[in-house]
Amino acid sequence: MGIEWYDRIARRNGGYKGRAIFNVIGRSAEEVFEVRLKELLPGCEWVLDAGCGHGEFTLKMAPHTGHITGFDNSAEMIAIAQKLMNASDVHNIEFVYATTKTELPFADGQFDLIYDRRGPTSIIEHSRILRAGGIIIGIHNDVSKVKERLSSSAYTDVEFEEYHDAVYEFPIEVEFSKFLADTPGNPDYTQPAYRALLEQKIQEHTTDGKLTIREHRYIWKAMKR
């Protein structure tokens, strides 16, 4: 999946966010992650939001810490984030266009905490920008690469929490198709060309007449040696 997908989502959706309307039944891992992060942010002077998207979540976290730098490899996302920041009264944030595929433009040990919410797990391999004793925390649906990268990098006290209790319930098929279309790596299921694939997904996710998707996420955390 290339950067073009994220740029397209930014233009179509106004940022890295979904369009679908659905109910969340049960406690979502996203909510738990936000609580965990808010517990860690106070006392941190320099924080990095890895893969900040359009910056909405970065702005939400800003009141809880000293300074947050958000970076993303989509210029479209960064442009939206900058506009949101300029329209707000938040002054402890900066947004930077950068990618983990090259050396990140930050100093050694610059950050006290790095968080990765829907961002690149390859941020783990850039441990030089996290100070010794600093924390890295993230949430993802597949942690195979996370485990591999944490084990081969300068981290200790590695923790994983698995969550699969929350269920997303969709009122109609159109909302379900929007959700799928806005999921990274998926084709645009709202288009007629993908109707057959959508029908298959609908069958797979219909139980007792309800169209649902069970959330499956991992929250992970580690400390730099």
Provide a brief overview of the structure.
The chain has 225 residues and is of the alpha/beta class. The chain has a domain at 3-8 and 44-164 and 216-224: Vaccinia Virus protein VP39 (Rossmann fold), CATH 3.40.50.150.
* CATH C-level of the domain at 3-8 and 44-164 and 216-224: Alpha Beta
Q: What is the total tally of β strands?
A: 11
Q: Order of SSEs, N→C?
A: HEHEHEHEEEHEEHHEEE
Number of helices: 7
Regarding quaternary structure, what we see is single chain
Estimated structural class: alpha/beta
Approximate helicity band? 25-40%
CATH level-3 fold name of the domain at 3-8 and 44-164 and 216-224: Rossmann fold
How far is the N terminus from the C terminus?
33 Å
CATH H-level name of the domain at 3-8 and 44-164 and 216-224... which superfamily? Vaccinia Virus protein VP39
The residue ranges in which pLDDT falls below 50 over 5 or more consecutive positions are none
Basic shape: globular
What does this structure look like?
- With 225 residues, the chain is an alpha/beta fold.
- The protein has a domain at 3-8 and 44-164 and 216-224: Rossmann fold (3-Layer(aba) Sandwich).
- 30% of the residues lie in helices and 29% in strands.
- It contains seven helices and eleven strands.
- A seven-stranded mixed β-sheet has the order 4-3-2-5-6-11-7, sandwiched between helices.
- Helix 1 runs parallel beside helix 4 (75-86).
- It is globular, with a radius of gyration of 18 Å.
- It starts with a helix and ends with a strand.
- The model has no long low-confidence stretch (mean pLDDT 96).
